[in-house]
Amino acid sequence: MSEASGEIHTELLIMHNSDDIVKAMDITRSLAELTGFSEHDCVLLQLVTEEACMNAFEHGCPMGNCEFRISWTVDADAMEITVCQSGEFELQPNREAPLKGGSRGRGLILIQSIMDETRLIPTGIYVSLVMRKGRGHAH
After folding, report:
1. pTM to 2 decimal places
2. Considering Cα of 126, then 79, then 24, then 112, what sign does the dihedral take?
């Protein structure tokens, strides 16, 4: 973890192992606590981290052979979490989209409901899910 000009940034390479998701969630919590997010927001940011990592495993690793990158940037106002994976990814067009039935398919709606901003950035064979939450912003 490095701290420069008021910005904290760390990056972790995630492999196909559930322990890596727990590590990513722990990093999210540590950064959120260190930079003044409320306990409530710390829990929500951990939940978003877990869901985004699970989506990357499920959608970016069809053969079970996986690695992807998660990075965090925290500035004076917000935390930004980026998950970069190979493969395609679709973001629901809006937060008011109807929930799907069954036990699957609600993760991105959950992420969009918690975060202030979510966007997808395709780059060649990779796609990044960028999620940003301001400190103290209620959703």
Report:
1. 0.81
2. negative
